[in-house]
Amino acid sequence: MAKFLDTTGVSYHLQQLINNANEKLILISPYLKLNERLKQSLEDKDRMKIDVRLIYGKSELQPAENNWLKSLRSIRTSFCQNLHAKCYLSENEAIITSMNLYEFSQQNNNEMGVYIDKNKTEDEQLYADVCTEAMRLVRISDEIKVSVAKVPKGNEESIKKTIKPVSGVSGFCIRCGEKIKLNPMSPYCLKCFKSWKKYENEEHQEKYCHICRKPNQSSLIKPSCYECYTINKNKLEFPLT
Q: Whole-model pTM?
């Protein structure tokens, strides 16, 4: 019988699902920013030449992810328009969950999901249905060619050193516009954060840019307007970098 998973269970079974795959992996997630453990597991699957399909759909891949994907030969990456599903499966297991393949979600959010074991008779048809839909998403997705050049390690370290808070500068709550400490990783005032916490939707559309306070379709993972992000991306730390 399919098993319910809490946040810890989703993270654990996802890691095991990837580690135990010997034939195929399909990883479907709107946002893509993997933690180091999952990257290491996928690099191992790449060395084994396992067919890995990575489907995303909410924003352009960030340079760090592009550079990493470019180094892999067996992982094919595709973009799926209007993707909101989060589903991960191998030849024997599947997980349907609220959790993105996004480091912030894995570390900070309260998630849940369902684990399906193909080898259990009562789960066999359910697994087949999940696999059928996952393959449909693969077919309607556009495969991308990763072409971003890898940044030299020395340059990466230099960039990291420039990411620090700007002292003496205020930001604004992205929901109510109240003046708060400038920190794109925490763009709510205390009152609005408590309100956001009831649902914990990191994509929920808010009203203001955290940096300039101009009206903007902001969210927890995109707290500033594009202009402010471009100007400050090497000065401040952002959820999506």
A: 0.63
